[in-house]
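User: Run a structure prediction on this.
Assistant: Running it now.
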Amino acid sequence: MPKHFKRGVKREHHFLKGLEKPLEGIARIPGVKKVIPGRIYASDSRGFEIKVSCETKTGLKLIAKSDGSVQEVFLVVDRADRERVREEIEGLFRSEKS
């Protein structure tokens, strides 16, 4: 694994509070090659949530929300695996809300 990657997650920059372990879980999903946390923005969000936002040229973009902040997270996923990975992520975080 390249420099700054540990357990499939890039660790060069910061994570939202509580985001590290869920990202490690996402990195274990078959078909997910890399998990790359992006920019952090201030927001008025409350609680914790991760959802798939859209497809990108190289995979999927997630939006993670945690008490007053939002962070983009990019996944490198082959085109053939994207729908299955999307469904697994949605299933993971839908079951945590219940």
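The two ends are 35 Å apart (CA to CA).
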